[in-house]
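pinging the channel bc i need a second pair of eyes. not urgent but kinda urgent?? the chain im working w is below, pasted from the shared doc
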Amino acid sequence: MAKITYIEHDGTEHTIEVANGITLMEAAVKASIPGIDGDCGGACACATCMVYVPEEWKAKLPEIETMEETMLDFCEHTEANSRLSCQLVASDKLDGMRVQMPESQH
């Protein structure tokens, strides 16, 4: 299980425990964390669950795949450290990770 902190654009923090094997998007939606929409339900087809991942956590995540990269190209607020939280699966190695959300997912 991993404790993940989601940080809204205004700095409001939400820390939740995410069971191993659950995506960060699914956990955020179930916990009603504002700023993660997940309109497609986690199919990597809408890019409404984008988060910014701090540099120190990037090596602990799987490489970005073509579909995710394509979806991020459509996001208005994409940065070099942007990832779709529907593609990030919780595990013990992500315990303590903090992700920031953009001002808007649309």
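so The chain has one domain: 2-100. and The mean pLDDT is 95. — does that match what u expected or am i reading it wrong
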